[in-house]
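Q: Can I see a sequence and its folded structure?
A: Here is a first one.
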Amino acid sequence: EEILKDLPKKCDVGAKKNTKGNLQYWVGYKLHITVDDHGIPMAGILTSASLADNQVAIPLAKLTAERVVGLYDLMDSGYDASGIREHSKSLGHVPIIEERADPGKAEQKRQEKLAWKTLNWKPSDMIRYEKRTVVERSFSRLKEEFGARFIRVRGHEKVLMHLMVGVLVLAVD
């Protein structure tokens, strides 16, 4: 609870790179949720839009671990930090976190992926990582089907309530 109290909750400006590598900006908040392999929400935290995702990883993992027994933590490269990996292991989970792009290792990664394709083989953690797309689908459904794209209320508590109703409907669906 102390960690959650310290997270910023004011409305501000956030930025994120889109699929084309361009920065997109928005004013408001950012919802961080964990979902299972079927897209069922397990925990969520609403913060200021400017907060980096990796700053919420540990409190969200603790909140999720209180509710369900998990085996893996699947995260994108925004969560690539030794502290997050160690915390995941301390919960008894296997952290599967995409490594950040390192320009010096680009050719090595390309060769590795080519070898996997040639052999028609993937490492088990890569197969497991592919389940992470469920998170993207859950966020997409929240935005497109359950009212999270345009929120017409002000204040952290009201926005949180609006979003959590959408999360509840997503869980029920």
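Q: Show me another, different protein.
A: A second, unrelated one:
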Amino acid sequence: MPTVEKFSQAMLEKYVKARGWKYLRDGDGDFRVDFAYDDSTGCELTLWLIADGRQKEIFYVRVASDKRIPKTDWARAMMICNTWNKDRRWPKAYLNVRNPDTDTTATIALEQHLDCEKGIHQELLEDFANTIWATSISFWEWAHKEQGL
């Protein structure tokens, strides 16, 4: 039976190492895994695995893409994200604009958070990360092939 333990970056490291992924760590200790361009998604994807929150108790999975959305397509991109969010449970999709007054392009962010304050077992962490990663790929396949993004 899986053992519940305190959520930690060591659990995230175990996850990426078990998959044999090459990864980077930023100054906060967050994990970044870069994936090459894929024709089915029409972009390169980056998976972030983050311990967030004041006590690093929130498991935060974020998937970014190299696809830039021109300002003229922001409204359509937001509708694509809204449609995804209405029809699917995860991950949350949104148009990420840093400064709407000066930016000429934006990106779409996909993310999901899990509160692990009371602990988590490795199997649940891995299942959650796998689900968000797989459904993020599904988002980009759908957005690219069916929505023309």
